[in-house]
Amino acid sequence: MDYERSITLPHDIEGVFAFIADTKNLVRWREGLRDSKRLTPGTDLDGARYAETLDTPLGIRTLTVELEARPPHSLAFRVVDGPIRPNGTLALRTVAAGTELTYRIDYTPMLPVATPIDLVVFASLTAAVDKSLAKLATVIGA
Description:
Blueprint: E1 2-9, H1 13-21, H2 23-29, E2 33-38, E3 49-56, E4 59-70, E5 74-79, E6 87-95, E7 98-106, H3 116-140
């Protein structure tokens, strides 16, 4: 199950990437995110792991998230623990009006067939993508 939405921001690609990759900004625009703490040493984003506390359909949960960073073109994440393990990618590309940011979320149910709980989880994930992009446009200034 996957979902994708895009927005265009009137900023250069490097500035948009820097903003979305800065953990101090995450709670300002990521829907449902309460806290994000780095677990791995160093400053490199690629391969870094974070403990993220989120509001989920199953309540407040802290999940371990691993990043894959290709500045300034993409920032991907995958949840590596817990019963719900979505993956996501924020892909950036330069366009005439600034930067197009495409947020894609992928969710694979644990069973071969999606259960009613999977449908609730997926609906929550897609709503979070939409709300996150709307918040991002407001916070970063679209």
